[in-house]
Automatic annotation (TrEMBL), chains A, B:
InterPro entries for this protein: HTH_LacI, Lambda_DNA-bd_dom_sf, Peripla_BP/Lac1_sug-bd_dom, Peripla_BP_I
Name of the featured protein: LacI family transcriptional regulator
Keyword Transcription regulation: yes
Phylogenetic placement of the source organism: Bacteria, Bacillati, Actinomycetota, Actinomycetes, Micrococcales
Keywords assigned by UniProt, alphabetized: DNA-binding, Transcription, Transcription regulation
Pfam families xref list: LacI (PF00356), Peripla_BP_1 (PF00532)
GO molecular function: DNA-binding transcription factor activity; transcription cis-regulatory region binding
Coiled-coil region: none
Length: 322, 322
DNA sequence: CTTGCGTCTGAAATCGATTTCTGTAACGCT
DNA sequence: AGCGTTACAGAAATCGATTTCAGACGCAAG
C-alpha cells in the first residue's frame, strides 16, 4: 500500500506537501499537479488510521440499534445515512440484539476508534452511555432514551401514540382491550403502556392488570403473548400491540387459532411491515422512522461541528392511520 | 483519555509492560496486578487506532450490502454477526443502496481503516473489488458475485430456485407465466431468469419475451412491473417474481387492481417477509439467508487466519415451500 | 541596495500502541 | 564457583498522516 512518503518521493516533494494537496491548503499549481499524478500512479489511498490517530477523530458515525431485523430500525438507519452522507460522513451500523454487553462492546469500539459520533437506540433503560459521555463524544439518543441521561434525544410521542391506537379500538366498539407490551426495562414500552391505560380510563373502561402481557418486541414474543391472552379465563376482545413485529406475531397466532381479525381487534403501534393485504380489523399508528433517523443525524452533526447548547429532545408524532 | 503511558506511569512500569499485560505475554503476577489496577483506576480503553496503525489490521469485519431495508439481507447479516462475534470480531454494516459509487466509497473505507476483511453482496455485476484484491485483503462474495472475480463466494442455486418456483406455478395449472426479474446487471437476476426459462421449456410452454419485466428488487419496482404486466394485451395468468420485496409490491398491485391471488398465480423467490396471512395462491421458494451469512463469515475467518487455498464457491439450496 | 512582507516548502515532532533488541537477574547444573 | 539457560523488563523504533516552526525565495517599496 502506497503511503504519503511514496507519493512524496515519486513527486519529488516532501510528505508535508502531499498532505497539503489532499487537505486543500496552499500549494503551487505545479506541485499540486505533480502530486496528484504521483498519487494516481501509485493508486494511493490515504491511511485513515494514521489520520485518525493524529487528528483524534474520524469521519465515521456509528448507529447502534437493538434489532437489525426490525424494518423500523432499518428505515431509521436510512434516515441517518441520508443526512450523514450528505455531510461527508460514513455510517456504520452496529446491532446489539438487545444485549447490554454487546452494546457496551460497540460503544467501546466507537470510543477507541475515535468515531465522530454515535446515534444510539439503547438496548435498555439502564444502558450505560458513560464511556461516551465521559470522553465527551457526540451522542444522540433515538427512539429510546436511557434513564437519566442528559443528552440530545429524538423520540416519538409514545404515550399519545399508545392512547391513539387504543382509542381506535374503543371507537370500533371493543370493550375488553388487552395490551402486549415490550420489555419492562425499555422506555418506549412503559410509555406505550401508559398510553393504553390512559385511553381505557378516558373511555371509562375497566383496566384489568392481567390483560397486560410483556414480551420482547419480536415476532415470536408477540405470538406467545397472544396465545397467553387467548388462554385467559375472560378472553379480551381486542389487543393493543406495542410494536410492529409483535403485531405480526399476534396476527399469526390469531390465524393459527382460526380467529380472524375483526373477531378480535388488533391495534398495532407501528405499521405492519411489508403487509400485502388490506388491513381488515387491524388499526395502526404509524411512526416516522426515517424522520427520526434524519433528525437525530442532523443534531449529531451540529454537535460534531461544535454546538454547545443545552441538550434538547425532539418529539415526533405517531399518526393513527385511518 | 488515558493512554498506555499514563497507565505505565501510575503502575511504575514501562509502556511495554502495560502492552504485554493486555496481550497475554509473560509478565510477573505482581506487575500484572499493578498494571490492571492502574488501568481500572484510569478507566483505560486501549486506542484501537494506534493499535491498528501499528499492526496494520483491525478486528473489524465489514459487511457491505445493497439494501438494508430488505429482510433477506438483514437475516444474512445476523448470520455473519453470529459467526464473527464468536471469533472475537466486530461487524459493521455498510449499506450501498445498489449504488456503485457508494459501494466503492465503503470499500475504500474498509481498506484505509485496515479492516480485517470484507463480506460483500455486490451492487452490480460490474462492481470493482480491485481496491481490496490489489491489497490482498480477505474478501468473500455472498449472494452475488461480480463478474470475473476469482474469490470465495457463497451463493444460492438461483437457476434451480427459479426453475423450482416456476414449476410450482406450472403444476398448479398456470400456462402463461410471466417473470418480474431484478436489474439486468445483477448476477442473481439473470440466473433466476434462466431458471424461469428452463422451467417453461421443460413444461413445453411458450416463452414470450414480452412477459419478462425488469425491475429493481424493491417493493415499488415490483408494483410497477406487475401493473405493466396487467396492461399487457395478452395478460399472463401467473407471475414468477424474482425476489421477496418485489413479490410484496406485486401482491399490492394485484390487491389494488382487485385481483386476488389464485386468480393470478404468484411464485416468489424468497419467502414473503413478515407475512401474516396463510399464503393463498402464493408459492414461495425460501432462501437460507442466515446460513449464507454464517457460511460466508466462516470462510472469511479462515482467510483472515491465513488460509491460502484456491478460492471456492459454496452453493446453498433454495427450497420450495409446500 | 536594503528592508519587509507574503507565499510556499521541508524538517521534525506528534498521535498511542506494539515489538525487537538488549540487558539484568535468577536459577539449575556440573 | 562458573557457566548456560530462562524469564522478565525497558529503551527505542515503528506504523502513516498532520501540523508547527522556521527557512527560502520573490517582489515591492523606500
Amino acid at each position: 500500500m502506497a503511503t504519503i512518503y511514496d507519493v512524496a518521493r515519486l513527486a519529488g516533494v516532501s510528505p508535508a506537501t502531499v498532505s497539503r494537496v489532499f487537505n486543500g491548503t496552499t500549494v503551487t499549481p505545479q506541485n499540486e499537479r505533480v502530486v496528484k499524478e504521483a498519487a494516481a500512479e501509485l493508486d494511493f489511498v490515504p491511511n485513515r488510521t494514521a489520520r485518525t490517530l493524529r487528528l483524534r477523530s474520524s469521519d465515521i458515525i456509528a448507529l447502534v440499534i437493538p434489532d437489525i431485523e426490525n424494518p423500523y430500525f432499518t428505515a431509521l438507519a436510512r434516515g441517518v445515512e441520508d443526512e450523514a452522507r450528505a455531510a461527508g460522513y460514513s455510517v456504520v451500523l452496529c446491532n446489539t440484539d438487545d444485549d447490554m454487553s454487546r452494546e457496551s462492546g460497540y460503544l467501546d469500539v466507537a470510543v477507541s476508534e475515535h468515531m465522530a459520533g454515535v446515534i444510539i437506540a439503547a438496548a435498555s433503560d439502564r444502558s450505560d452511555l458513560s464511556p461516551l459521555l465521559d470522553r465527551n463524544k457526540a451522542v444522540v439518543a433515538v427512539d429510546r432514551v436511557p434513564r437519566g441521561a442528559a443528552i440530545d434525544a429524538v423520540t416519538v410521542d409514545n404515550v399519545a401514540g399508545g392512547r391513539a391506537a387504543t382509542t381506535l379500538l374503543v371507537e370500533r366498539g371493543y370493550r375488553r382491550i388487552a395490551c402486549i407490551a415490550g420489555p419492562a426495562d425499555v422506555e418506549t414500552s412503559t410509555r406505550r403502556i401508559a398510553g393504553w391505560s390512559a385511553a381505557l380510563e378516558a373511555a371509562g373502561l375497566p383496566e384489568d392488570p392481567t390483560l397486560l402481557e410483556h414480551a420482547d418486541y419480536r415476532v415470536d414474543g408477540g405470538y406467545a403473548a397472544l396465545e397467553r391472552l387467548l388462554a385467559h379465563d375472560e378472553r379480551p376482545d381486542a389487543v393493543f400491540v406495542a410494536n410492529n413485529l409483535m403485531s405480526v406475531g399476534a396476527l399469526r397466532a390469531l390465524r393459527d387459532a382460526g380467529i380472524h381479525p375483526p373477531a378480535v381487534g388488533i391495534a398495532s403501534f407501528g405499521a405492519l411491515p411489508f403487509s400485502t393485504s388490506a388491513p381488515t380489523g387491524v388499526s395502526t399508528v404509524s411512526l416516522p422512522a426515517r424522520e427520526l433517523g434524519s433528525a437525530a443525524a442532523r443534531i449529531l452533526l451540529e454537535r460534531i461541528a461544535g454546538d454547545r447548547q443545552e441538550p434538547r429532545t425532539v418529539v415526533l408524532e405517531a399518526v393513527p392511520v385511518v
